[in-house]
Amino acid sequence: MYSYVLTAAGKKEVKRLDKQFQRQVFNDIEEICKLRHPSESPNVLKLKGKYDADTYRLRSGEYRVIFRVISRVLIIDKVFNRQAGKRRYK
Q1: In a 3-state reduction of DSSP, which class is residue 15?
Q2: Domain interval for residue 46
């Protein structure tokens, strides 16, 4: 079982979300923490390119969660809206 922590930037981005979306994102994060490895979830993809070796993306409804896996801990780096993210994180 995995645990998770949010970076300062991750906390700031989560606070901007409506309460219902915060619940949705945290429910999805807790679900992947129960798996043997987060990549077993169909909503999780490993990222390539400029990202670290163990960086993944979780799709949670309209939102994306960018996280790293280090020693059975998910480090949540970013949480953003899919549509805004296309413009914001290119």
Answers
A1: helix
A2: 3-88
How many domains does the chain divide into?
A: 1
Per-residue pLDDT of 31-75, as tens digits, reads: 999 999 999 999 999 998 887 788 999 999 899 999 999 999 999
Q: Are 52 and 69 in contact (CB under 8 A)?
A: no
Q: Nearest Cα to 30, choosing from 71, 74, 89, 79?
A: 74
Whichever domain contains 50, its CATH number is 3.30.2310.20
Beta strands in 1-90 (DSSP E): 3-6, 44-46, 55-60, 63-70, 73-81
3-state secondary structure of 49: coil
